[in-house]
Input
Amino acid sequence: MECRTVLEHAQALKEKDYSSVELTHALLEKSQSCANLNAFITLTSEQALKQARQADKLIGKGEGGPLTGIPLVHKDLFCTKGVRTTCGSRILDNFISPYDATLVGKLQQSGMVMLGKVNMDEFAMGSSTENSYYGPTLNPWNHERVPGGSSGGSAAVVAARITPVATGTDTGGSIRQPAALCGLSGIKPSYGRVSRYGMVAFASSLDQGGVMALTAEDCSYILQAMSGFDEKDSTSINQPVPDYIDGLSESISGKVIGLPKEFFSDGVDKEVIQATLDSITLLEKLGAKTIDIDLPNSAAGIPCYYVLAPAEASSNLSRFDGVRYGHRASEYTDINEMYEATRTEGFGPEVKRRLLIGAYVLSVGYFEAYYIKAQKLRRLIADDFSRAFKKCDLIVGPTTPTTAFPIGLKTNDPVQMYLNDIFTNSANLAGLPAMSIPSGFDAQGLPIGLHLIGRYLDEATILNVAHQYQLNTDWHQRIPTGYT
Ligand code: GLN
Output
């Protein structure tokens, strides 16, 4: 029963093939047998079984919804009442939130069962989950490879078929890049679509919660449940959420797909390019039209992002000072020493690097040269997309330039690590919805991802095209060896 999708589980629960308690037991057991992946930070077995019992009651009375009784895990960046939220950091190792993130509450309301909190790069800074205080997570497709990041725990859990769904957050690619590297479907909705309340902030103007699952159809159900206006988040959008599920079955005939030449450059693996071109051919067969488009400022995406994200992080992470949350150093003589020792002990090297960059680009004398310039670039990048979306409904390319890379390969070269986001972070800079879906495998058996970027607030077109693609391919059905 482990390897099923959300919808398959929902059907089985409804038909009483098994109960949510039985399913939860089986998946908790699987999480133990897959402990070597190091995907979990906290397992919440007792709470999960309690939620599953409640779900079974509802299902028994015929009152369950499509997600009632379905297990999931949350990235350990979402606050969960009574369950610790570490953000992959020593500084929050003992932090227990007094409230649930809106997204967590909404999924709980829909009857989902939380199995635990999963590993991630510290404060979501990274592309490999190697920056976690709790050690790296392994990729179920190949234990010597990274699962991507920062939501690498989420991706490993779903790829290993421990739960059919995981939440994630995406500031520059952290849902889509791990989804690509682990053979999953993962969507980052438009900025403001999903509440950020209770989602620990990294770079507030870029962060967005979303979901990873086995299919685009499953993503639609979860996104439907997690989306919507939240008065507790001032950046949440007060716009109606379309019926994502309804739109899935539409034909994609006549949809115009823009192909930016900048996304098919020399730096991309040949096999990744080939899988992308084959996918485009399939979309054309399904009736989509393709046109060439230009995103002339896309090369500025990485430098722009790596000025703005650290700047926002340096402000957001100033709250971790040993007074209000989590870890406090034990040895100090005055308050300044306490701050310094706490932050020195509490943060890992990548977080410190970002805080230094962030403080630097915001400081007097450099603010105009770096921060303001990056803000201007951000506008140019967003304008490129606005121009492109006058001519096309969707932009398609590879999600990442390579498949999953070996653990340790890029840990000493931050710039190489940053380049993983070369195709993903512009969607965050422009606030656009974007998704990765499985589109093939390389010669080493590692998954490849196809990247779909949509118009602002138009997740529906992305999900529709992704679903139609999956009705005609089986990449998303492949299971890593040893995880059936
Ligand atoms: N890899 C990017 C970074 O390190 C993006 C991370 C994310 O989306 N949270 O900042």
